[in-house]
Amino acid sequence: MKLSTLFVPAAFAGKCENWKNDAVAANPLENGSWSCEKPGKKRFVCKASCNAGSIAGFKKWKMDVSCADGSTTIKSRAANGMTPSLTCSASDQCDGLSAANGDLILKRTGSMRKSFQLKCNGAKKNASKSRVNCNRATGDVSAPGIPDFATHCQNDVLPEKYYCDFNSGTDASSGSLDGAVYMAQTDSGVNFSGSISSADEVWDAGYHGFHVHANASPLNNEAGQCKGAGGHFGLAGQIHGAPTDSYPDRHVGDIANVFATENGDGTRTAPVDVTDAKVSLNPDSVLFIGDKSIVVHANIDDHNPTDDPSSTGAAGSRPGCCTIKPVRYTCDFVGAGADLSGQITFKYEGDQVRVTGTISASSNFDDGLHGFHVHANAATANSCSDAGGHFKWSDDEIHGAPEDTPPNRHAGDLGNINVVDGVAEVNILDHVVSLIPGEDYFIGDRAIVVHKFHDDANPTDDPSSTGAAGARLGCCILNRA
């Protein structure tokens, strides 16, 4: 039997050379070249190669250019675990690869790939599943088992705490759920704590999928409620899985199921207390979940028992969602005994609260130390007198120094700020106050007061002392940022 061959009209055959040239021009190769052959009359076959001394970002790169219609088919191949790139590099792009507080130990060098293992400083063994592959021509890295290799060993970062409010009343929340979830870094991972409740019939008693999704806000779009949150937060190559699975066998955002129970009043509540070791609150990490969203689903997450790459856990509709934001409070000053102005910000550094900002006045703000306290009431009227006294969490607290611990200081005793040329640069780290509603020493929705004189920290432990800091020069109300 005679095999049929492709018939190429003469008019097209005359254009084939031009089509081949166009294909080569559309795929330029610095530090390399194309070699093209024409086996028979049907096509050109062009192969890429790098100049001597250059590093190829591919094992094989071939173009087939059809002489029938000029269509081009590209076939490429790379080393295992690498994505091919049409690149010829004059230098090794993996030479600068590094990991904070750790070493990348070179295990193998190939023609286009270097393989490393991560070892954290002070560790006896390499990090688990820590193989890191780097394309020598492009510097592209593949580390599916430890995608956060660059920050995995960091132990000197004190991340902020984050929260997600399901009923914020803004584009940062959507749906029928009430409640809030707070996130804090612990030695075991990121802890999610709080509660979620609703009377919505979709929010029935039982398990509900609880995930971090890719987008932050707005959370509604034309597709419907919470659809603006996008899909589960995941990195390239990850599939849906259980929270206990290792990467890439779970998305970053595959956190948990939460369990709702009946309250007896037509509502149901799910307490949240989950710690996940595979997400991060470090903004430098690829596993960082800040500025994304939490979505709670109508049904249980089945954790994809068949490892289906298209699965999202079959958890159903989205009765509620919210944007993950840092826990911060700000305070904008108004003057009383002086024309004080400026803003200060309260935020977490690990488990302590950092206070920063600038306060200034054109007069009556003498150089030197001035008492700086949290006062009990969220009020600034009557020259700040409506702010009340120093904030105390319990009646047995007496006035003291910031380094003291209640009851040997008021919760609101933040010490002094220093004024130079009418300006105070505030930078205080406090170990007592809290920015989480419901916790001891929570200072949200109270006032900050700056006084005329320095706070003497009550050296005699006088129960009636307030630090002898004198009149109130200005104040402000603490509001969630």
Automatic annotation (TrEMBL):
Residues crossing the lipid bilayer are none
Q: Which Pfam families match?
A: Sod_Cu
Q: Which residues form the Superoxide dismutase copper/zinc binding domain?
A: 179-324, 341-477
Top-rank taxon: Eukaryota
Which InterPro entries did the record assign? SOD-like_Cu/Zn_dom_sf, SOD_Cu/Zn_/chaperone, SOD_Cu_Zn_dom
SUPFAM superfamilies named among the record's database cross-references = Cu,Zn superoxide dismutase-like
Gene3D superfamilies for the chain = Superoxide dismutase, copper/zinc binding domain
Protein's name according to its UniProt entry: Oidioi.mRNA.OKI2018_I69.PAR.g9701.t1.cds
Organism of this sequence: Oikopleura dioica
